[in-house]
UniProtKB/TrEMBL annotation, chain A:
UniProt keyword annotations, A-Z: Cell membrane, Membrane, Oxidoreductase, Transmembrane, Transmembrane helix
Signal peptide region: none
Sample GO molecular function, one term: oxidoreductase activity
Domain NarG-like: 76-212
Protein's name according to its UniProt entry: Sulfite reduction-associated complex DsrMKJOP protein DsrM
Gene Ontology CC: one annotated term: plasma membrane
Regions that span the bilayer: 6-28, 71-88, 108-130, 142-162, 189-207
Keyword Glycoprotein: no
Source organism per UniProt: Imhoffiella purpurea
UniProt xrefs under InterPro entries: NarG-like_domain (IPR023234), NarG-like_sf (IPR036197)
KW Flavoprotein (keyword) present: no
Pfam families, alphabetized: Nitrate_red_gam
Membrane-related topology note: Multi-pass membrane protein
UniProtKB/TrEMBL annotation, chain B:
GO molecular function: 4 iron, 4 sulfur cluster binding; metal ion binding
Occurrences of domain 4Fe-4S ferredoxin-type (ranges): 67-96
Compositional bias of kind Acidic residues: 498-526
Pfam families: Fer4_8
Disordered, as annotated region: 494-526
Protein name (Swiss-Prot/TrEMBL): Sulfite reduction-associated complex DsrMKJOP protein DsrK
Recorded superkingdom: Bacteria
PROSITE patterns per the UniProt record, alphabetical: 4FE4S_FER_1, 4FE4S_FER_2
Length: 243, 526
């Protein structure tokens, strides 16, 4: 089992590296690329505080999607909120001692897991039965959905049907912090679950999952509507004026 | 009913989302710009030899220049929220007119050349080489987007297809594939000063004619000045306002408002165009060059304020970009925003009680109001977000007794484009224009049936031209579309100025003027 443990230890070091460096690269790229013109989708807030509020509504409630399509919103929001709870629940594997809030959230994490699967199923069904959505779906869209569904299902199976030794898992992850590789339980479901999660981490910065950081950099959402009051000019546009 | 070489869709009570019909509009091909028009704008005259690598380089350059493009290429998750939002998809059923599919025409090239996924596994992520077929698709479908931004309202990431259409057109221009309509017009602005190519003397002549017409009709001397140095306000208006119907009735209205306000104003032969087609082709440099003309005119005429006439995309460039492109405006009167919309100007005067209206003058009409896309979703009027919806409606309510809004889902920031914006207002795209107008006209037809609406007011030169042209295809009358300031013009009660009184005194002293007036009145009667 030493081989598998070592393999998973390496896999997670690698996945974490790819996720962090890949996302850091994209975030730096987005923030360094100028937005030369004021293009907020109006009506838009006229103050920075209003923009923060608008962004919060987008991030937390998916406001625009709610206006756009109720079914996609219901399933999409269920999935994302479920995933959020599941992620909070999983933090107990990565923290010692476990903070009170994370202890509190544990049972909700399970409901989150269920909501996540239902949401994903709804989103996936749309890709087959709505002709417009089917038209725009590519193989990678199916694969990412499949990946997430499998992650959710393997996780729920371990919770409800085939229990694994969670204490050993925690020991494994705690060990990774100090490069002290502790044995991982050799459970096939767990192996699959962790492999899929690592794959998700690796593809994150190179796929449509970039919508997560992208939203924060979307000029139609994050710009203040004040072009007459304040002159907005990008460095490359400024150079045109000096010619 | 206008004759069509294509099937005109039937209006429905509510716009239904059609089943997709792949390739339904693949035949649409707007005329390409000839070499001479391309050269004026600094673009190659015809498709360059190594166009593929040039285009990819250009895409790389734009990705580094525009955060919007970079983020929007990456962020789409294909959720489908935009798929039923574009009027061109709803009217044509062609799936490539769904915003996400239109974006994907560029996204698949982006993925192939700029992402690991697309370089290593193109099939998997839907990446494709930039082939001639793809380029042809670009030309076809990026000229079926009016850059109206309706998709961006509903996108969870605010992805704006307009940004992508603009970038695609700029890339195509840079390899010698430009659109005749837009590029020829921009050339005219550089050479003559406006989109329609009306030279200064023609404008002066037209405005003199307008002054006479208004005097004949109202007995009040309302001035329509041009190139008058030292005037308080420079009015920049779309050149269609100078002669086209119903546009010119709007211009007559602006003049009457200035007359009643007692504020001196002037137009300019140098900046005789509010519209800025540089935006349609995504070219910052050309957009800036067009916008600079307004700055030059403002300096030359020593004005203190700038007011824009009724024009949608123009108001976007004016409100959102003018300060960037041609500012800072520190030489103008700091008490007023630069620029102002004529509706803001008129509305303020109404608030101050400086205008008197006889609303019964518009009693022969039942009005509705079309929110022009770029005013609605890319600009503002007044101090409050949403002023662009409330101010024009307030002006209609102040000047008309009968007003009804169209269905809530089709107005304000959810308004449908007229179908002719973004550089598509050309006869070679008539099928796209007629079909794209369907969602708007469904809603219009609904209020015609249910509320007895007779006319629709708009504040955009493109909307006005487009509706006059496409309404007859659907069995409506071309004159059912009006300028908003035409309503103002009809209802406003004019105060005779000192000129008018002098005229009377002159008449007592010398019968000459009176005779002339009688002759003109006789002409009109005949």
């Amino acid at each position: 089992m030493a081989f598998l443990t070592n393999f998973y230890a390496f896999l997670f070091y690698f996945a974490a590296f790819v996720l962090v460096s890949g996302l850091a690269f994209k975030i730096v790229q987005y923030s360094r690329t100028p937005a030369p013109l004021k293009i907020p989708t109006t009506p838009a807030p006229t103050k920075r505080s209003g923009v923060v509020f608008r962004m919060m509504r987008e991030v937390v409630l998916f406001e625009s999607l709610f206006r756009g399509n109720k079914w996609t919103w219901i399933f999409g929001w269920m999935f994302h909120f479920g995933l959020f709870l599941v992620t909070l629940r999983h933090l107990r594997y990565f923290m010692e001692p476990v903070p009170f809030l994370i202890q509190l959230v544990q049972p909700f994490g399970i409901y989150g897991g269920l909501a996540m699967i239902v949401g994903l199923a709804g989103l996936w069904i749309r890709r087959f039965y709505v002709d417009r959505v089917k038209y725009i779906t590519s193989l990678s869209d199916h694969l990412i959905l499949g990946l997430l569904v499998l992650i959710g299902c393997t996780g729920l199976l371990m919770k409800f049907v085939f229990h694994v030794d969670v204490v050993e898992i925690k020991t494994f992850y705690q060990g990774l912090y100090s490069f002290d590789i502790k044995p991982l339980p050799a459970d096939p479901l767990l192996m699959l679950h962790l492999f899929l999660v690592a794959s998700l981490m690796i593809i994150f910065p190179y796929s449509k999952l970039l919508h997560a950081p992208g939203l924060f950099f979307s000029p139609t959402r994050n710009q203040v509507d004040n072009p007459r009051e304040q002159r907005h000019i990008a460095p490359w546009a400024k150079r045109l004026e000096q010619q | 009913m206008a004759k069509a070489t294509f099937e005109v869709p039937e209006l429905t009570q509510y716009t239904e989302v059609p089943a997709i019909q792949p390739g339904a509009m693949a035949h649409s091909a707007t005329f390409k710009a000839k070499e001479e028009f391309q050269k004026d704008l600094g673009f190659p005259g015809e498709l360059v030899d190594d166009w593929q690598s040039k285009a990819i380089d250009k895409m790389g350059e734009l990705l580094g220049r525009y955060r919007s493009l970079q983020v929007y290429m990456d962020a789409c998750v294909k959720c489908g929220a935009c798929t039923d939002k574009c009027h061109y998809f709803l009217g044509t059923k062609d799936p490539k007119n769904m915003p996400v599919a239109r974006q994907d025409l560029m996204r698949k090239v982006y993925r192939r050349y700029f992402t690991w996924g697309g370089r290593l596994f193109p099939k998997l992520v839907g990446a494709e080489d930039f082939t001639k077929e793809v380029l042809d698709d670009w030309y076809c479908y990026f000229h079926q987007c009016s850059q109206c931004r309706r998709c961006s309202v509903f996108c969870p990431y605010g992805i704006d297809t307009a940004e992508i259409s603009m970038a695609a057109r700029e890339i195509m221009d840079s390899i010698g594939v430009g659109q005749k309509y837009c590029n020829e017009i921009i050339g005219k602005v550089y050479k003559i000063g406006n989109n329609l190519g009306l030279p200064g003397p023609a404008l002066i002549d037209t405005l003199e004619g307008l002054e006479e017409d208004v005097y004949d009709e109202t007995g009040v001397k309302v001035r329509y000045p041009i190139d008058e140095e030292g005037a308080e306000v420079l009015l920049v208006t779309p050149s269609a306002d100078f002669f086209a119907e119903p546009h010119v009735d709007g211009l007559i209205g602006y003049g009457k408002v200035f007359h009643e306000a007692g504020i001196s104003w002037t137009m300019s032969t140098h900046a005789s165009e509010a519209a800025n087609f540089g935006m349609f082709i995504g070219s910052y440099e050309n957009m800036r060059r067009v916008a600079q003309r307004i700055r030059e005119a403002a300096i030359q005429l020593k004005v203190k304020r700038i007011v824009f006439g009724e024009c949608g995309h123009a108001w976007r460039v004016a409100y959102s970009f003018l300060n960037t492109l041609a500012g800072p405006w520190d030489f103008l009167d700091p008490r007023y925003p630069v620029p102002q919309h004529i509706c803001e100007f008129t509305y303020e005067l109404i608030q101050e009680g400086k205008l008197t209206f006889d609303k019964s003058e518009n009693d022969d009409k039942v009005l509705t109001y079309h929110d022009s896309c770029n005013v609605a979703r890319a600009s503002r009027m007044g101090d409050m977000p949403g002023g662009q919806f409330e101010i024009p409606r307030a002006i209609i309510r102040a000047t008309c007794n009968h007003f009804y809004d169209m269905d809530e889902d089709t107005i304000r920031d959810r308004t449908f484009c007229c179908g002719g914006g973004g550089g598509l207002l050309t006869d070679d795209l008539m099928e796209v224009r007629v079909k794209g107008a369907k969602p708007r006209l469904d809603a219009l037809n609904n209020v015609i049936q249910e509320k007895g609406v007779t006319h629709m007011a708009a504040i955009c030169a493109i909307c006005k031209t487009q509706f006059s042209k496409v309404l007859p295809y659907y069995g409506m009358e071309m004159d059912q579309i009006l300028s908003l300031h035409q309503l103002v013009s009809n209802a406003i009660v004019l105060t005779p100025g000192p000129d008018d009184e002098e005229e009377d005194e002159d008449d007592d002293l010398d019968g000459g003027d009176l005779d002339n007036d009688n002759e003109e009145m006789g002409d009109e009667a005949a």
